[in-house]
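Shift notes (night). Ran AMP nucleosidase while the centrifuge was going.
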Amino acid sequence: MQKQPTVNALISPEGSLEILSNHEVNRLKDRSEGGLYQLFRQCALAVLNTGAETDDTNDLMEAYADFDIRLVPQPRGLKLEVVNAPASAFVDGEMLRAIREHLFAVLRDIVYSSTISNSVPGFSRDKPEDLTNLIFHVLRNARALQAGRQPDLVVCWGGHSISREEYSYSKEVGHQLGLRGMSICTGCGPGAMKGPMKGATIGHAKQRVKNGRYIGITEPGIIGAEAPNPIVNELVILPDIEKRLEAFVRTGHGIIVFPGGVGTAEEILYLLGLLLHPDNADIPFPVVFTGRQENAEYFEMIDRFIRNALGDKAAEKYEIIIDDPARVAQTMKKGIAEVETFRRAMQDAYHFNWMLKIDPVFQLPFEPTHESMRALELHRHQPVHMVAANLRKAFSGIVAGNVKQEGIKQVEARGPFEIAGDPVLLDPLEDMLAAFVAQNRMKLPGDSAYIPSYRIVSRATETQ
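Came back to this:
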């Protein structure tokens, strides 16, 4: 990635968090391993780089190695000083308002996530109920939870590296959702995360919807690869990928999945692993897989992989709709109406799905390393939700090796992550990954061909 022109500027708050304690300021300035400076700098640079054609956090950090961000205390609050920031974030010397909002959202969420565990007596990052409460508190602090609002939030998942035609289709689906008054929540980046939001803005404009929501939920490890698109009007940064995924299913009322790569596959397996839990059997949660006619084969491949790994019961949890945006929106509207009826009957909140049971295996952070990836239990001689959980971790590791700074460094130092297990699971997995590579779904097209961050290890090799 080539560095673009830069500017220095002093930025006033926009949208959130103008006041910090001395302790919080000191932690943000602390450049040691236990401090927050490096994390804050990485996320801030990603936000300032919105719109750039890159999905490699490592490249971004190297291209802007001289970027700095500093807190400047003021009598009535604080300001941020940015040094050597991407000039694309400014117009006539003034930072774009959306980027300024996102920058202070980064500050808000990093500070809050780092302090909440110390402010809640008895809090433990190993307790499922405490982790769910942490997610709730982060979302509430970001004002992303709106009590009293009728269910209308559709989560859209899909690839950041997609074709122009696939992007246009995702935009038309968003348009149809917007015409029906529904709001959009995505991973906040480009591609299938931006398309539905852009389409929904037009639908909302036609229906004079003035309170449309475009929520972007991300986490520090991925934000450099998927910088918030400018349509996002509510940005929330969760501490890690597991909490990000839980935030999607707790706040959303239904999910639409567009074509994508390993990140999308990770999300699908996470979602199905939850919905297959016996305690969630009666909880309505509409899920639609959709794409253009040219994507029919893609979803047939995904469907075969799911049925092979998780069984036909898993396939009952979603509906595949090809090349029909209006039907997708109608299906989602009907499904969300059922969600509203159920929540009302069960006296569960509209704004946060407290009833959804999430097994701890889906909540506790998975740190992809060569050892942890090699040790994954990838076989079908275990409960189906554990199959989904371990496959989800395998995809999470590939995502890390593809676009996350720490994962990229590990692969560069020690070679690809090895994925071993039962060929009954791994052969279809290898075929699907090969299809992702052939369809350019692993990373944004660049100057060089994609080099896999993973290597499938056969059982024969494993036993040698």
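The CA atoms of residues 8 and 83 lie 5 Å apart. The first strand starts at residue 6 and ends at 11.
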